[in-house]
Specification:
145 residues, 5-stranded mixed β-sheet, mainly beta, 12% helix
């Protein structure tokens, strides 16, 4: 009985892991607005991987939380409707204050960005942006400080 219970628990955990909806949370600790002008991600449904894209997302100071990728402006995919909320954002392109444009994402070398343009909206201080992926390799928190 113990082996069956352990097997069932493992099966349940693996099943939930495959269907877990990844969130994207951008925490902007500066006074500067940012614009994520495009991004891509992936959705896994069974043994099939689908891509998705999204468009312009304005990031204001504070927490900007998206519980799943369908909440991102301009979300588009060919994934079945039943799988669309379970995607993981992988990379996005950002317009920062003062005209800085750069990618930020989950794979090196795009996991961090440090400005050099001393934006006036941040009292002349440069900012740093870091991508932090959750333990499920899907949830992402982007910190801007």
């Amino acid at each position: 009985m113990k082996k069956i219970s352990l097997f069932f628990a493992l099966f349940l955990v693996l099943g939930l892991g495959k269907s877990f909806a990844g969130y994207l949370n951008v925490i902007n600790m500066t006074n500067c607005p940012f614009q994520f002008y495009s991004g891509i991600g992936s959705i896994v449904s069974g043994s099939t991987t689908y891509q998705f894209t999204f468009g312009t997302v304005n990031i204001n100071p504070g927490s900007n939380f998206f519980a799943n990728p369908t909440l991102l402006t301009g979300f588009a995919t060919n994934a079945p409707a039943s799988a669309q909320a379970s995607g993981c954002v992988e990379i996005t392109k950002v317009n920062g204050p003062g005209g800085a444009a750069f990618p930020i994402g989950k794979m090196a070398p795009y996991t961090t960005y440090a400005s050099t343009n001393n934006p006036t909206c941040n009292a002349g201080n440069n900012y740093t942006m870091t991508w932090n992926t959750g333990s499920n390799n899907c949830d992402a928190v982007i910190l801007i400080f």
